[in-house]
């Protein structure tokens, strides 16, 4: 092999090497493109799922609102149900429970949208009443104004109940002044206060303090049940009150429902 042949062979070998590197680069580029396409497809799929979930949620909330308007009857628009207010799904559940009982004596820990709706239900049925304990004068005034604007003074009432130290089994809690809790029997107990900022497991005292006042077929509802504090409260309630059966409702913020066991249960 002459010098020219050797040079040609070296050149061909170098070009083949470069070609191999180019092919490998193309493969890597193709793999990168495929990964990006997969990521785009996965994101699009996630977006579609999120859009479907949002659509289902909105549709369900519209259904809940329509049901509430049927249950409450004519009386103007319902109060807002976003932000800190009880959502349409919880409010509908409470309204349907009160209606199914033919009217209910409801005690609420915390006042707001649900107070107004349950008062509307009581007026629509012609039986029952809702009484709300409220430690915040501003919210108490807002709820009273909502009740008064709808002529619901006889069906719903807000009690200014400042938080005070309450002793339970040697533990001290900040809770509504027990002396201000009405003495009547309770068919439905809605626990939506005090706020979590009051202290750890702030809503725990409701059941131990009021258990003896609950009707035989009483219903206890704990809002915001998906929060860690409320989950801990639910566990403590279940241990201390085995005469109740617990059920979790998959509402926006979670709802815990306790029903007292009856002999046939």
UniProtKB/TrEMBL annotation:
Q: Where is the signal peptide, in residue numbers? A: none
Q: Could you tell me which species this protein originates from?
A: Glycomyces terrestris
What's in the keyword line of the UniProt record?
Coiled coil, Methyltransferase, Transferase
Does the record bear ATP-binding in its keywords? no
| Pfam entry (one) | Methyltransf_24
What this protein is called in its record is: Class I SAM-dependent methyltransferase
The GO biological-process annotations, alphabetized, read as: methylation
A molecular-function term among this protein's GO annotations: methyltransferase activity
Sections of the chain in a coiled coil: 9-43
């Amino acid at each position: 092999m002459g010098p020219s042949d050797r040079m040609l062979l070296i050149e061909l070998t170098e070009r083949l090497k470069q070609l191999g590197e180019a092919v490998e680069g193309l493969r890597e580029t193709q793999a990168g493109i495929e990964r990006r396409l997969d990521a785009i497809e996965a994101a699009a799929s996630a977006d579609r799922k999120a859009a479907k979930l949002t659509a289902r949620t909105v549709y369900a909330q519209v259904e809940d609102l329509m049901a509430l308007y049927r249950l409450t009857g004519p009386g103007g628009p319902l109060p807002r149900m976003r932000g800190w207010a009880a959502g349409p799904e919880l409010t509908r559940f409470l309204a349907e429970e009160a209606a199914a009982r033919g009217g209910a004596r409801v005690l609420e820990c915390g006042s707001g949208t649900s107070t107004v709706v349950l008062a509307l239900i009581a007026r629509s049925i012609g039986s029952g009443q809702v009484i709300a304990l409220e430690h915040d004068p501003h919210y108490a005034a807002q709820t009273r104004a909502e009740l008064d604007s709808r002529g619901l003074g006889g069906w719903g009432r807000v009690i200014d109940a400042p938080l005070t130290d309450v002793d339970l089994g040697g533990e001290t809690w900040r809770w509504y002044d027990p002396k201000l809790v009405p003495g009547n029997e309770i068919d439905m107990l809605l626990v939506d206060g005090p706020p979590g900022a009051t202290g750890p497991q702030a809503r725990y005292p409701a059941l131990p303090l009021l258990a003896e006042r609950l009707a035989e077929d009483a219903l206890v509802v704990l809002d915001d049940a998906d929060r860690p504090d409320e989950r801990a409260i639910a566990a403590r309630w279940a241990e201390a009150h085995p005469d109740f059966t617990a059920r979790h409702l998959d509402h926006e913020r979670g709802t815990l429902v306790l029903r007292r066991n009856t002999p046939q249960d």
